[in-house]
Amino acid sequence: MSEENNNFDVQIQRHVQGAGRSFTLDVSFQTAARQTVIYGPSGAGKSLSLQAIAGLLQPDRGHIRFQGQTLFDSQAGIALAARRRGFGYLFQDYALFPHLNLRQNVAFGLRRGLFNPGARRTHPEVEHWLRRFELSELAGLHPHQLSGGQRQRTALARALVSRPRALLLDEPFAALDPELRERMREELQGLLQELQLPMLMITHDPEDLERFGQARLELRHGRITQTR
Amino acid sequence: MNPEAWVALALSLKVAGWATAINLLLGTATGFALARWRFPGRELLDALLTLPMVLPPTVLGYYLLVLLGKRGWLGSWLHEQLGITLIFSWQGAVVAASVVAFPLVLKSARAAFENVDPQLERAARVLGLSEAAVFMRVSLPMAWRGILAGVLLAFARALGEFGATLMVAGSIPGQTQTLSIAVYEAVQAGQDASANTLVLITSLSCIAVLLSARWLAPQRSAA
Questions:
Q1: Which residue from B2, B186, B190, B223 puts its CA 20 to 30 A from A110's CA?
Q2: What residues contact residue A163 under an 8 Å CB cut-off, 6+ apart?
Q3: ipTM of the complex as predicted
Q4: Structural domains counted in chain B
Q5: pLDDT of residue B100
Q6: pLDDT tens digit string along B22-52?
């Protein structure tokens, strides 16, 4: 398997100290699959791994490559900032900006300057994704006025509008009730098919693993213990 | 009403206004640094910067005299290099009022920034924003209510500043005699009518500021 065929090539170590717990993350895997799922119990280091890949957490040692491009390499002294990695990130609680309306949330990444987009400013790309997720009618509302499913769609639209080269998903369905969870799984699966977008998901839900995992990794106590 | 009262009020507003503007910038910046960056001595620095809130104003005034006086290390440098003398000037009163009111902005700014969910800042970084843009577009808009409440308290505190100001700037009518110092002088001189007016003006201004601060304060996380 040549290097460029890998979507993710990760080999990192990071020591974390905090709140009475000392923890060593020692994760290494390579995956050529379009859809990779990392499965494991909470506290295994899933979120830390995903944050390291996104550039939100700096590993002590190792490397992170995506489709042959080095994003982080401790020996070569390379550490690309999160904003330059070009990933879309779906946070577990969606992390929508409470002070901005839905349209501004979706448009957030299109303008990189010092000021937020105006409340009523429209942009074709933004309007496209609002329509695609049936959010156009709600575009003036603020996140706390939305249902769980609408929040997730908004977060997805916000991630996709900047045309990411891969999607990183942190427990994407954990915050939803069971019925909605099933519907959103189908919606996401359809979307990933349609866009042919590589994704890396972390989850503790075996159902997510079953549905999304073309490549399946198991993470326990900060280490990858099983690869399928 | 006697014109001296208006002069004193105008001077008080000028001094408190400058002190508040300085604290808005320095207090917000320091509060953000203390909330976001971990460095050795962080809590010690916070304690030192909060000291003006608990130290007797006279002690603070003495420190400032030692520092800013003609023979003080900062005062002598300012005098020799830039020809600036802060002691017994309204600018000196601004320095005194700023130092006294600084902790109020610092404390509320730090608390307000610590209340901002770090996840939101991470989301902004992944979406392509620089650190400056994350601050301007996420951290500051989420924290500004808390900061503003502290800034208004600092304004009220600066408006009422007496001890340190008297020691550093003295009591020169029309130049450094602020409202609170004018009250003291009027009472000392037995001018009851004048004292009454001054006290009333001071109380009303402070009530107005406190009401505005209260109106801004209910800062339940607008999730």
A1: B223
A2: none
A3: 0.92
A4: 1
A5: 95
A6: 999 999 999 999 999 888 999 999 999 999 9
Burial class (CB in 10 A: 0-12, 13-18, 19+), B22: buried
Contacts of B132 in chain A (CB under 8 A): 114
Distance from CA of A115 to the nearest CA of B (A): 6
Task: Please indicate whether, in this complex, the C-beta atoms of B125 and A56 are within 8 angstroms of each other.
Answer: yes
Residue A120: CATH number of its domain: 3.40.50.300
A115·B136 Cβ contact <8 A:
yes
Mutation pick from B127, B129, B136 vs chain A, by most beta carbons of A within 10 Å, is B127
Among B117, B130, B142, the residue with its CB nearest the CB of A83 is B130
Q: Which residues of B touch A (CB under 8 A)?
A: 117, 119-120, 122-130, 132-133, 136-138, 141-142, 222-223
For position A17, what pLDDT does the model report?
82
A2 occurs within a structural domain: no
A22 domain residue, yes or no: no
Compare B209 and B158 and report the one with higher pLDDT.
Answer: B158
- Select the residue of A89, A113, A116 nearest B123 (Cβ to Cβ): A89
Spatial separation of the C-alpha atoms in residues A140 and A20, rounded to whole Å: 43
- Please tell me which of the candidates B123, B126, B129 has its beta carbon nearest to residue A112: B129
Instruction: Summarize pLDDT for B75-123 with one digit per residue, the tens.
Output: 888 888 888 888 899 999 999 999 999 999 999 999 999 999 999 999 9
Both tokens of A48, joined, read 């830390």
Question: Could you give the number of structural domains in chain A?
Answer: 1
Q: How far apart are the first and last CA of chain A?
A: 16
Q: Is the dihedral of CA B181, B184, B188, B194 positive or negative?
A: positive
**Which stretches of chain A score pLDDT less than 50?**
1
Residue ranges making up the domain that contains A196: 31-56+81-227
Q: Which domain holds residue B11?
A: 3-216
- What CA–CA distance (Å, rounded) separates A43 from A96? 24
pLDDT digits (tens, 9 = 90+) for B186-211: 999 999 998 999 999 888 888 888 88
For A9, list phi and psi in degrees, rounded to 5.
Answer: -130, 105
pLDDT exceeding 90 applies to what percent of chain B? Answer: 69
pLDDT given for residue B69 in this prediction: 87
